[in-house]
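Hi there,

I know you've been waiting on this one. I reran it after we fixed the sequence typo, so this is the corrected version. Both the input and the resulting structure follow.
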Amino acid sequence: MQHASTFGSWLEWKRGATPLRSFAEQVGVDVGTLSRTERHQTEVLLPTAVRICQGLDLSVGELFREWQGRVPAGFTQLPPKQWRGCLTGRDIRRWLQRILEGHRRNRELLISALNLIALRSGLQTSPLPQLTQLFSLADIEKLLWGFPWLRLEVEPPLEEERVIAGLGAFYQHGGLITLSEIGAHARYLRRRRGMSLPQCCDGAGITLGTLTSIESGLVKRLRLDDLLALDACLQADGRLVALFWWESANRLALEKEWANELPALAQYAPHVRHVLVSLLIGVGRWLQHIYPDDATWLAMVRQELGLIEGSLGRQAASQGGK
């Protein structure tokens, strides 16, 4: 095809002669949104673009090759067999499922990790004897039932430049990431280029509200064109696009699995499941930070989750973890 100037033009070309209603059913996006996008009456949101590509079984790289004629370098991701040192979607899905199914050992694994993080992160510099175990199994029960007066969150180490600067490596190795991490990475890129918030907004042609919501990790309705403009302004060569796309794609995939494949999750509210996924991702990132050159923790987690046998766990640990 002659490369399209807009996502809407590409979408119209991709749909071809397929009736709009049939195409909408295939990609899981309503007819009105698709029609307005094709007629350039609305700007496509990132989650909508991700959902369309998932319905077409297209990767972000394949989309950009068809749409813009090139695949940015920042999209590069290693084959799954080469992923090392990160909690991946498979790990999170298994851990989440076992916690919700009531597996005591896997719940205890999370509690032990939370207590370790509290001690090793500096949150408890001089723990009192009665506070050496801040978290207990009861805290998981409270979290699962969504009590409004309890919030249990573990933010990744966002102030550690080594962690935030290396977010692209986590993506390359299939590690799940959070919006707060991507926002911190965008702020890192902006500051590295010596740009203030207003300067960056002017350079990218986006509003201050959009940029601040991105950097704070609170962005809710991110337009694909705004993301592309910010990526170009920061000379990220697709890295920001890839990170946001990866986060959104994994979130949508989890929600689809919750609806179709994991009946044990049906009794829990969606926001509870999202909170727990974010908690597990944050725990994994902190363990990477605490043990930067030792992937034994990851092999042990996978062994506890039943993803690898004991001997394989020891082998994986000796090879740097998978």
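Quick highlight: DSSP finds 18 helices and no strands in the chain.

Best,
R. S.
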